[in-house]
């Protein structure tokens, strides 16, 4: 439907009067907004990207940082300047106010590379801000003066108001951007470049110049631990994980020594308190003792595991964070995304070009000095200055000097005469050269020393030869430049962040059991909110992150997320916490198939499930029901007694059934037939051993954890009473349970292995007071877990040199037999040197005049043998009697066989018995 409207005629009264202007007045041209927004937005976005947020690849600085350094260079006189004065000086170049300049300057100062600070500049670890600019001072560091500035090779531009000249980019001869890191948010893009280690950058630049492959990883001023598995050169999509360094002070206290980059001690403590209030972790209190070093004490209640709490801190607090780098820089006036390795290559190439330009400028300066010194020497020694006494005009003076010099010099490229001894100049003599000679004072001429002049010229020529050699071998010169930086400024700049590979801490595993699981068997409800329900019973402790499994009498089960109250159906048989990674929890079940009435037995694991989906453990027939069900945490077998109903036709109404005879299969298996007769009840007679055997335990030294997934070194098969022996560098040992949740301090561990009854520990140590070396061998006599026992001397300065569990250990000793003797090497078998003694014994002395070093020639001990056949899901077995030897074959019967009527009746009775009663099950 279309609507047609006619325009109404406009009356004269409604017509607007045209504005009237005084003579000489004009109206501005009217511009429409259409198109203006688009242009202005693009201009603004480009301005923010290029002039505010993203650093340039040439010097790695944002404009505000570059202007601060330029202003400080202009003010530099070797002394500290008030930051307020530096801000005022910078405002001549930066049009965005003092606040942005002050914040940027504090950020530069806290990185401790370009600016030397004095006063309270804040603390990136605690989040404390700097004092007011009028109270703090700064000056350029020696590194900045050496590396950042050189006006001769700097490109300049006019400042925003046209009054001053500022550098377009600074000639930085170092990968400054990678050393400091940067973060900026522009319009439509952002950049986040991680800081890297100073020494590693210098070494990597040297490797680039030598044509080697490089790989760079972040290093943060706050220290801590870093997993760079997915760093990918810092490109988009990369991710790094950062963790605080947490130590176990004792069983009731954890100490946080380093914090992740980007957090503060205050924020970290707040996240811990928040997690505690949410019942995700159990702590008593948190104390911040941070001073020169970070120290946050986390006090634990009695009975709380410090290892589990450590994992919980990583899972629920800022003790672990992740950062997504995004290396975006300005290259040729455009933002570009490049990896840190490529960025370093570009920076190294730029540094080589800058060094070449500096050498060329220096070469020109030296040639100019040599040129002037040579002309001055000729002018004075040949007394050309006397010939200008008779000259009347200035031009005559210049011509006279020029004619006098021409007898002794020639320009490079001019044809030489026979036996020409004239000095070759690189450029023609100019009027400025002649004028400079006329300005030499008589006093200087009278004291002129020809020998010193020759020495000066020789020094210039030697330096010229050195510069020419450096230009000819520019790569070698650049390598020496970076080596000098490393030597001059690399002290005290060692890596602070430890590179590790983290295991994934699952929240469900470390969540505190802050709830109790209840079940109402009568009404079919499960949850942690049934405490006031009179019909509900407590099942176990759980957390609000757990999954719950509920198995019903009809043989169906469901796995669901725990909630306050959930209806799962009536006739519940079993409710428990479900762990999808638990491959040791085995269910033993007997069920009756509805249609056939046959009873089946099965052993199964519950893995690979979907939440809230109903699964059937029976054959799926109507009226099927579970007769017997147990959950066995360590795959224990059972011996049960089966009692048939009174109406069963079988003669034997009771018999035993051993679950150890069944293989452990999946949840969908049918099972084996127990009997075809109706069953009255099944009762447990005895609980068997674990049919999967002991757990195979491995030690992953990368993450410092035990595991059963096959990662790392194989330690052996661990049963309930087996322990792990750990020997530390401080001369102590400790026994630990093979718990995968334990953290091991790998850098301080000498030996870690399964403790066997026949394990003998051999050790070499030096006693602190006497500096005497001892050898001792002993067996582990203690059985207390989680307690260190020191087996070397406890005097200050005592040190463990070697420790091994090898049966026949050997060491190589570098020694001197007396003061004047030469050093020699001797191999000693420790098992022959000393017998096995108690662990508290001092041991036997190594009686040599001086021992320089002790090196262990054997490894830490024999590797345990792995089981040939894994019993993880194979058939369970029980001890069986050895079959007797087969009897000798009976003689073959050749005559007729007599069968009586009694034999026939007995056979027929056996055939009439049900198969389940024939002793086969």
From TrEMBL:
Signal peptide: none annotated. Residues 1-21, 862-896 are annotated as: Disordered. The active site is at residue 135. Residues 54-464 form the Topo IIA-type catalytic domain. It comes from the Bacteria. GO terms for biological process: DNA topological change. GO terms for cellular component: cytoplasm; DNA topoisomerase type II (double strand cut, ATP-hydrolyzing) complex. The keyword Transmembrane helix does not apply. Residues 881-890 have a biased composition (Pro residues). Keywords: DNA-binding, Isomerase, Topoisomerase. Pfam families: DNA_topoisoIV. Belongs to the type II topoisomerase GyrA/ParC subunit family. This is DNA gyrase/topoisomerase IV subunit A.
